Amino acid sequence: MRHLILILGDQLTTGISALADADPAQDRIVMAEVHNEASYTNHHRKKLVLLFSAMRHFAAALEDVGWTVDYQRYHPDNPNQSLEAVLDRTIRENAPERVVVTECGEWRLHEQMMGWADRLSCPVDIREDTRFLASKSEFAAWAKDRKQLRMEFFYREMRRKTGLLMTDDGQPEGGQWNFDADNRRKWKGAPPAPGPFRVTPDAMTRDVIESVNEFFPDHFGTTDDFHFAVTHQDAQGALEHFLDFALPCFGDYQDAMSDDEDWLFHSVLSPYINCGLLDPLAVCQAAVDRYHDGMAPLNAVEGFVRQIIGWREFVRGIYWLHMPAYAEENRLGNTRALPWFYWTGDTDMHCMHRAIDATRRNGYAHHIQRLMVTGNFALLAGVTPAEICDWYLAVYADAYDWVELPNTLGMVMHADGGYLGSKPYAASGKYIQRMSDYCKHCRYDVKQSFGENACPFNALYWHFVDRHRDQFGSNHRMGMIYRNWDRQPTERRDAIIARGEYLLSQLETL
Ligand SMILES: Cc1cc2nc3c(=O)[nH]c(=O)nc-3n(C[C@H](O)[C@H](O)[C@H](O)COP(=O)(O)OP(=O)(O)OC[C@H]3O[C@@H](n4cnc5c(N)ncnc54)[C@H](O)[C@@H]3O)c2cc1C
Ligand code: SF4
Q: What stretch or stretches form a coiled coil here (predicted)?
């Protein structure tokens, strides 16, 4: 046998570089559901179902076109419970000339992979993941010698590189690179939100649901109402659904939150893009086509494209530039444990309850819930970055270390000194009230900053600002905030700080 080609659970596409020169007559594919990958974190059960089912469907599709696939289904009693052990067995059975694999997405497995050739006594060809626009070395070259790494400038490079939303004379479509200022509307129930694309589970998916419930009973979340796509065809259906029904309003309501709507006008495509069921560039091109066809406005399409060729590529670049030390960063010196209600949703803070409950049910919460509710609270409360990062890695169907870690440790916790934002995304309850209707249903009063019923976000916000004066006092983007704080009467400031101290000592009870 020539090549033994390993395809990982988030590489489910025939476009993957490991298959570039593959030949079914000489090569064999290996795929495996192993305990080590399924349990390095407390993965949401919907994520396990999505990945196991999508892997099985992909393996079946490969076999249909003539491939031999050595596929290991999950069982706790399988003798080989790591990818290395599976490879060891298949190498002994097939004696390939070499193993071929596309680079993985996270440091943990990357380190293991680097030792495979020696330990397995077989050459291992690790290829670049060409699904990303910027390779690791390209990003490193862009970052080199820059004093500050700013997503916005990297994004412009990616616009030029892809030609997406660029005019023939090399200018950004509409004369601006970024239409974010237009994308901050509150949603008041109209226009109606379309809801996500839903697929009824087939027999293969139902089988997976049963085994995930049997073998992972302690994992977070529920498999109830599983409706994710698990094939390329259905993921394409999810893309079309987004383009037809949500994209036109994506920009306007990008930052909105609602008590009645889990998904609003978000695409819910990250689970598919991240595991290979959709190609990120093709997704962006499809959105841009809608703009050119007059079916979606520029602020929506530019906002959407920026998330994928800007933020998604940028966070991956930061991850590989700074790992493994990045995961240890804690520049604000946080020490508090993650409150238990992150796992149960059992809190009187209605915004937190709603975001965590949606997460538990869906394996999904949209960006603003992640950033400005659950993330914001962890930032204000001074939670240890490693603990909140573990939570985000566990609870979302789209979670992978390379994208979760910079978003949480960098964007949310500002623990890396500011690669993902020149100031922390800290906000009081006022922001949540402005962008949602949560506060109307809350036992706390968003207008109060101290007193028993005062919204916890308010005092915690000012406590955060006050206790981090050394870090942020000279940040020009925070100047106005410090001036506002310093202008308040001493008694009021003392009362807010006292309330903040009390809240920090009672986090579990809020
Ligand atoms: C604390 C925190 C943790 C996060 N963890 C993850 C994660 O583990 N996996 C993940 O894919 N995204 C993560 N994100 C980014 C973002 O919240 C999700 O990509 C988005 O909510 C997915 O839902 P959607 O597909 O409906 O996105 P949409 O709002 O429709 O956006 C379109 C696409 O843009 C991309 N995107 C948007 N924002 C980001 C971003 N900040 N970083 C990377 N890609 C982005 C995604 O591919 C997404 O599908 C995290 C954000 C925060 C604040
Ligand atoms: S009052 Fe405060 S805790 Fe309650 S929903 Fe509003 S922001 Fe959240």
A: none
Tell me the pTM: 0.96
Please state the domain count of the chain. 3
Q: By residue range, what is the domain housing residue 416?
A: 340-509
What does the block give as tokens for 378? 């962890």
CA of 323 to the centre of ligand 1 (A): 20
Residues 309 and 239 in one domain: yes
Q: Among 322, 354, 378, identify where a domain stops.
A: 322
Q: In the block, which residue shows the tokens 């994208």? A: 403
CB 100 within 8 A of CB 18: yes
Instruction: Tell me which amino acid residue 106 is.
Output: E
Q: Would you say the CB of residue 263 lies under 6 angstroms from ligand 1?
A: no
Q: How far is the CA of 365 from the centre of ligand 1 (A)?
A: 9
* Burial (CB count within 10 angstroms: exposed 0-12, middle 13-18, buried 19+), residue 225: exposed
Tens digits of per-residue pLDDT, 408-419?
999 999 999 888
Distance CA 465, CA 462 (A): 5
Same domain, yes or no: 310 and 387:
no
Please tell me the distance between residue 329's alpha carbon and the centre of ligand 2 in angstroms: 29
